[in-house]
Amino acid sequence: MRIDKFLSNMGFGSRKDVKVLLKSKAVEVNGEVVRDAKQHVDETADNITVAGEQVEYVEFIYLMMNKPPGVISATEDKYDETVIDLLGDGERHFEPFPVGRLDKDTEGLLLITNDGKLAHELLSPKKHVAKSYYARIDGVVTEEDGEAFRNGVILDDGYQTKEAFLKILESGEESEIELTITEGKFHQVKRMFESVGKTVVYLKRLSMGSLELDPDLELGEYRYLTEEELIGLKEKK
Fold it and tell me: What is the per-residue pLDDT for 221?
């Protein structure tokens, strides 16, 4: 990889910015000053420093966000704030994207990455990656609803859902539940409850595969995945 591309990819600005940096003699490769933007480096083996600080090569980033309501799961939008708008410059220059979508009014766990292969694996219908949600429901949720969800309910477009698992936390005029599904149809949780005559009034995603929402993350906050979390996602996808 050319040194100017490497430094630009690692967040040191545009190729033009990097050329200025190189001319200032701030960049060294294996202890030797480099001024030629066209010089090639081995990004995984060479010791590359800027102003004496070592630059570690990073190809992919993996972020866990606690998505707030009112923000859309997209990379850009003409009208609404997106989850990418909530990231810092250090993350945005990697051009990450949300893995799947949460509805605009839905909160909770959202994985953001630039690793297209992992995203494809997690979203593939063939993989049946489990996703768990907490919801408040307008209406009395019953064990009969749970049985219907296990058997698969018919959505408004005629699609029959795959087996889903309902846990009733509290049943009343406004019920509290947790629901685990293994597919991701548009507005699926809301439409599943509509099929049994009830309305979701609050929805929060708790987990995706082995990845669970960090309870310490406030709405709109994000952090990098730990090595253990990333390994778990890749092994259990």
Answer: 97
